[in-house]
Structures are given as C-alpha cells and as structure tokens.
C-alpha cells in the first residue's frame, strides 16, 4: 500500500556520512586543544601525560577511522544492492 518513492539516481543518504564525520571529528579536534594535554601528570609507567596521551590519540584515531570507513562502505554497498547493481 505505502511504497516509498524511488530515490533519484545518484543521490545517496546523508546519515552514514554524517556519522562518519562525527566519528572522525574527535581525531581532528582533540589534538588541536593543546591545553587539554599540556601537562606531565598523571604519568603512565613513567611516561608524562603529554606523550602517552598523544599515543592514545593515535590509537583512537585509527579505530575511529576504521569505524568511519566501515560505516561508509557498508552504506554504499547497501545502496548498490538496493539499486540493483552487482556487489563485489
């Protein structure tokens, strides 16, 4: 009875892209807030906070980048299936 109208060709949903931006935002914004990590305490195994926080940011950025990649690629795959294209 209620059919969704066909989406115009070439138009992709914005939701996954917005989610990808939200996932990537901390990886870009946190390193820019220097007063957040410009201290020596607390230390972690003798490492000052500044250094281990930087290492934690690198790991966090990698995880968030992978998550954003998966969100976008899965969304694009779903769009291709919905549009009837073959998936790899």
UniProtKB/TrEMBL annotation:
This is DUF3311 domain-containing protein. InterPro entries: DUF3311. It comes from Nocardioides panaciterrulae. The chain crosses the membrane at residues 17-37, 49-72. Pfam families: DUF3311. Keywords: Membrane, Transmembrane, Transmembrane helix.
